[in-house]
Amino acid sequence: MPVIAVNKTLGTELEAGEVVLTRGAQRHANQRHPVDYPKCLPHLANVIANPRYIGDDHTNSGIEIWGYVATLSTMVLVAIELIPDEHGRYQISSFYMVSEKKAQARRLKGFLKVVVLE
C-alpha cells in the first residue's frame, strides 16, 4: 500500500502493509466488470504503486486508488479496504476502468484528490 501517498493525500495514519487480491475479490470484479477484469488485472500493482488520484467518499470502509494505464488509454480504479486483515494486509475489494470525466466529477465533489507525494 502506498501509505505515504495515502496518508499525505487523505490525512490518514495508515500503517505500512501489503495489498492483496483474494479469490473472492477476483470473482466479484469478474462478475461485476467482466469486460474490464482481464484488461485491468495485469496493471493493478502499477496503479497501486503509482496512483494519480486517491479518493474516499466516506460511504464504506475503503478508499479508491486511481491510475492512468497508457496501454488501455484510460484510468483504472482499484478499491481497497482500509481495515487490514489479521496479517496486516489491505485487501482489494474491486477494480475496473473509469473515464477521466468521472475522475473530474469526483474531484469537483471533493471525493477524489490529486496524489500528494511531498
Number of helical regions? 5
Summed up, the domain count is: 1
CA radius of gyration is: 13 Å
Shape: globular
In percent terms, what proportion of residues is strand?
Answer: 25-35%
Indicate the percent of residues in helices.
25-40%
Overview of the structural elements:
It is a single chain. This protein is of the alpha+beta class. The protein has one domain (3-114). Helix content is 33%, strand content 28%. It contains 5 helices and 6 strands. Strand 3 and strand 4 (74-81) form a beta hairpin. The longest helix is centred in the N-terminal third of the chain and has 10 residues, at 23-32. The mean pLDDT is 94.
List descriptors.
118 residues; alpha+beta; 6-stranded mixed beta sheet; 6 strands; globular
Write a short abstract of this structure.
The protein is of the alpha+beta class. The protein has helices at residues 3-10, 23-32, 36-40, 44-49, 100-109; strands at 19-20, 53-55, 62-69, 74-81, 90-98, 112-114. Strand 4 and strand 5 form a beta hairpin.
Could you outline the blueprint of secondary structure elements for this entry?
Layout: H1 3-10, E1 19-20, H2 23-32, H3 36-40, H4 44-49, E2 53-55, E3 62-69, E4 74-81, E5 90-98, H5 100-109, E6 112-114
Parallel strand pairs: 1-5
Antiparallel strand pairs: 2-3, 2-6, 3-4, 4-5
